[in-house]
Specification:
Blueprint: E1 7-10, E2 16-22, E3 37-38, E4 41-42, H1 47-53, E5 57-60, E6 67-72, E7 75-82, E8 96-101, H2 118-125, E9 131-134, E10 138-141, E11 151-156, E12 163-164, E13 174-177, E14 179-180
Parallel strand pairs: 1-8
Antiparallel strand pairs: 1-2, 2-11, 3-4, 5-6, 6-7, 7-8, 9-10, 9-13, 10-11, 12-14
Length: 182
Amino acid sequence: MKARSAKFLSAAGFIALFTVITTLGQGGSEFLITSESVGSVRLGMTINEAKRALDDAEFNMQGENGEVKVFRKGKLTMIASVEMTDANEITSNSKIYAVKVIDARYRTASGVYPGMAIAAAEKLMGKLGRMTLSYGETETADFANQPAGFSFEFKGTNSQKAGIYDVKYPDPREQFATRFNA
């Protein structure tokens, strides 16, 4: 991992759910997503520091692959990806290098939020480029004019994929779409 090139991920529900991933910027209000923070959670914070910043949150450190689920008022709001120890453990001193935001109250300064329709996001950030489906699960793509340090992850509605993929020659590792279900 490059120094301070971590990512924030804001999960969302576009008509094909999308996710905002960010890397460095300025802090802000309780629900502002910037390139270095999601609300009061900043890249590089330890779990202990994040707990102090979100004193009303519950942290579930039993996640797989260094994921810590964060709940506020019983609702999953974000998933922090943290550095694990050499023994593959998450501790209170594990540093946060990415955050996936689930809660639609979180927004960028331009108004992009989890759950926003692709068409609405294109009005703010330009045309959505080629979508990639990795291992049949994760759909990612970039907008023409998205903020520096952000990436997006998509999820379709009603068990549908966000992208429309050519399945004549499916590759189990990656498939590409230039048309979308949105």
